[in-house]
């Protein structure tokens, strides 16, 4: 009985942890198995635009009202307003293209799973087997 | 029914827009922006007026060519451009090919705006700027009145640049090259259009090195080229015929510092322009900078002369600095104050020009900014003209599409 209670408690703890965590996911063609916060920040500020194999990075973002977005941005220590200004300067200078804005975590997963070189973020509990997890942000 | 549904889906997909409202046509991204204004102008020595104006419209075309290559074209129409009325201007501002090997190494070839200080690359990107009227030498409206070309490298034709991570900081670097000063280019004479090509064998080279991190950005920029020191005959009676004082080596030095944090934003720049004139040219400059005797009346005994300060100084050197401090109350609402000052050691009419400005803006949606600005230009005591000030009140809307 005690073991069952302990098991239930552990599963609940793991599930709630996954529920609050944000997973950074990428297409399975991406060679990296993990990513650092500074590398992730460079990708989302469009400073880095290619993977190590020189394949283009396709960056995915979510609409402002998604709670996972807030946790992700806290994790990379940037505000949505900061990134919008950075992206706008890059786009208006002709130096790159702003990330694609998707409506939901399911759309992010579909986009990342089907687009070579794509990277995005979703709630950890939403991760599917057709994407690769590079990092988890608490 | 199914066919109609598929058509609706296809049309919706084709006309869907990204956050930045770019439209892709066969792989080409077409986008742009415009800024429309209404202003009230109150100069101290002439009549007040007010006007609507389509200050600027820029059309961009970009395309990712694959394997690290991309192309970009920028057309600009300014000041209510109308070819039938000969209003405004229509320019090819940029057309370049970029090869990006990595974050550390990028190359651009073609006509481009070089990296110099903070504002040079984005001076015409109105959606990025809090202002309607920019800090003095960056304000194209004044180009017909104030010769700002000496302050800024406006064009280059090749640039190598990149950035490197150093701990939590980024080191930015760029070197560029282009044609010599625009005064050396073939220009239109009469009805004969020419090619704008450089007629000299010497060129302009320059670069910038800077550091970014923790919301701050600091950089040093420089260019070297030559200045065609031709002083044309004037109406003051000081320059009686055009004088050519040589192809003068010119060095520009720029320093930029900006900071964003805690809701505040601060931008500042200094630009120094130094000319290395020959002794013979310096003697000519010393001569024309002497006080001028001008006949102001006639008596039976003969003409009466008055002495005025010469409108010319004895050096081509110039300096400029500006600072802007602003605060973002929310993501949509901001306000700022700013000042800029220019010294022109040669043209005394515009020496000690000061600008004070206050303004703000509101973004109801991401692609639209409504702006208000008060702009005070003070030229001080202008030789042979007296005290000159100019008050301008602006409201504008800047739209990205």
Would you mind describing this structure in some detail?
The complex is a heterodimer of chains A (138) and B (401). With 138 residues, chain A is an alpha/beta fold. Chain A is 43% helix and 18% strand. Chain A has one domain (2-137): 3-Layer(aba) Sandwich (D-Maltodextrin-Binding Protein, domain 2). The two termini of chain A are 32 Å apart. Chain B has one domain (29-287, 316-400): Porin, CATH 2.40.160.10. Chain B has 2 helices and 19 strands. Chain B has a 16-stranded antiparallel β-barrel. In chain B, strands 13-14 form a two-stranded antiparallel sheet. In chain B, a hairpin with a 2-residue loop joins strand 3 (49-66) and strand 4. Mean pLDDT of chain B is 86; it is low at 1-21.
The share of residues in extended strands of chain A comes to 15-25%
Q: What do the pLDDT scores of chain B average to? A: 86
Fill in the CATH topology of chain B. Porin
Average residue pLDDT of chain A: 89
Helix content of chain B: under 10%
Largest sheet of chain A: 5 strands, mixed
Amount of beta strand of chain B: over 45%
Count of distinct structural domains of chain A: 1
Which stretches of chain B of 5+ consecutive residues score pLDDT under 50?
1-21
Largest interface: A-B, 25 and 35 residues
Distance between the termini of chain B: 34 Å
Order of helices and strands of chain A: HEHEHHEHEE
Q: Helix- and strand-based class of chain B?
A: mainly beta
Helix fraction of chain A? 40-55%
Number of strands of chain B: 19
Main beta-sheet strand count, sense and barrel state of chain B: 16 strands, antiparallel, barrel
């Amino acid at each position: 009985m005690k073991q069952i209670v302990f098991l239930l408690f552990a599963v609940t703890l793991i599930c709630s942890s996954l529920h609050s965590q944000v997973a950074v996911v990428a297409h399975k063609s991406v060679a990296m198995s993990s990513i650092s916060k500074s590398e992730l920040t460079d990708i989302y500020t469009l400073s880095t635009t290619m993977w190590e194999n020189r394949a283009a990075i396709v960056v995915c973002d979510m609409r402002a009202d998604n709670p996972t977005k807030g946790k992700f941005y806290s994790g990379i220590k940037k505000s949505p307003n900061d990134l919008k200004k950075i992206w706008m300067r890059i786009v208006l200078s002709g130096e790159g293209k702003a990330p694609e804005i998707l409506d939901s975590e399911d759309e992010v997963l579909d986009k990342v799973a089907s687009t070579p070189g794509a990277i995005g973020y979703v709630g950890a509990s939403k991760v599917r087997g057709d994407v690769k997890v590079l990092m988890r942000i608490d | 029914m199914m066919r109609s549904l598929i058509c609706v889906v296809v049309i919706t997909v084709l006309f869907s827009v990204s956050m930045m409202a770019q439209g892709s046509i066969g792989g080409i991204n077409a986008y742009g922006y415009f800024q429309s204004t209404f202003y009230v102008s109150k100069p101290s020595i002439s009549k007040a007026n007010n006007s609507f104006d389509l200050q600027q419209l820029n059309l961009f075309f970009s395309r990712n060519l694959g394997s690290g290559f991309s192309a970009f074209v920028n057309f600009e129409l300014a000041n209510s451009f109308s070819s039938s009325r000969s209003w405004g201007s229509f320019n090819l501002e940029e057309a370049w090919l970029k090869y990006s090997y990595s974050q550390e190494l990028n190359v651009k070839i073609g006509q481009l705006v070089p990296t110099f200080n903070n504002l040079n690359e984005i001076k015409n990107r109105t959606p990025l700027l809090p202002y309607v009227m920019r800090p003095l030498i960056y304000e194209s409206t004044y180009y017909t009145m104030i010769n700002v070309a000496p302050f800024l490298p406006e064009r280059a034709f090749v640039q190598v640049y990149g950035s490197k991570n150093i701990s939590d900081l980024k080191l930015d670097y760029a070197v560029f090259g282009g044609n010599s000063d625009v005064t050396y280019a073939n220009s239109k004479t009469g009805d004969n259009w020419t090619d704008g090509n450089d007629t000299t064998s010497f060129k302009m080279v320059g670069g910038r090195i800077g550091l970014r991190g923790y919301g701050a950005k600091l950089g040093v920029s420089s260019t070297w080229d030559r200045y065609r020191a031709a002083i044309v005959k004037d109406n003051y009676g000081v320059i009686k015929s055009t004088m050519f004082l040589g192809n003068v080596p010119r060095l520009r030095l720029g320093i930029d510092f900006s900071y964003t944090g805690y809701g505040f934003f601060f931008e500042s720049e200094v630009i120094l322009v130094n000319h290395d004139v020959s002794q013979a040219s310096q003697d000519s400059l010393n001569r024309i900078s002497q006080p001028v005797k001008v006949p102001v009346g006639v008596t039976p005994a003969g003409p009466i002369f008055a002495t005025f300060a010469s409108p010319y100084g004895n050096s081509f050197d110039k300096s400029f600095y500006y600072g802007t401090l602003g605060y973002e109350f929310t993501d949509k609402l901001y306000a700022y104050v700013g000042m800029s000052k220019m010294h022109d050691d040669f043209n005394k009419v515009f020496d000690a020009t000061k600008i004070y400005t206050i303004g703000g803006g509101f973004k109801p949606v991401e692609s639209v900014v409504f702006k208000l600005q008060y702009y005070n230009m003070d030229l001080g005591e202008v030789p042979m003209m007296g005290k000159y000030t100019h008050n301008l009140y602006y409201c504008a809307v800047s739209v990205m599409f």
